[in-house]
Amino acid sequence: MLKGLNHITLAVSDLEKSLAFYVDVLSFKGHARWDGGAYLSLGGLWLCLSVDKPCEKSDYSHIALNIDAKDFSAFAASLRQKGVIEWKQNRSEGSSLYLLDPDGHKLEVHAGDLQSRLGSLREKPYSGLEWL
């Protein structure tokens, strides 16, 4: 029986640049590094950075990171001040900033949770919405 997500591995082309981004810009905690990668964490999320050739991505697939609503504006301003590249404007419930990491992986910093998103759907349903 599956119990939940275990970890996320991202292919990165430049380990130093990626470590600086995830640790210094996004405040992940570093645990170990080696020639071919590094292990980091944020909350209960374990992230592996693996030196490899990243795949080209042009879809909406992304990883969302949680932040308290009270901290969102200041954190978003600090990311913009650090020159992060934004790939999308927020059009959904909650405050979100969509950014790219140094290898173009799509990330989102989001203030909200599943319950707030479901509440938003009750007020303004998506086309073809079915409750499961």
From TrEMBL:
One function term, GO molecular function aspect: glutathione transferase activity
Keyword Nuclease: no
Ranges where the VOC domain occurs: 4-112
Pfam families tied to this protein: Glyoxalase
Signal sequence interval, chain numbering: none
CDD domains attached to this UniProt entry: FosA
Top EC category: transferase
PROSITE patterns: VOC (PS51819)
Domain of life: Bacteria
Sorted UniProt keywords: Metal-binding, Transferase
Keyword Magnesium listed: no
EC nos: 2.5.1.18
Alphabetical list of PANTHER family matching this protein: FOSFOMYCIN RESISTANCE PROTEIN FOSX, LYASE, PUTATIVE-RELATED-RELATED
Name of the featured protein: Glutathione transferase FosA
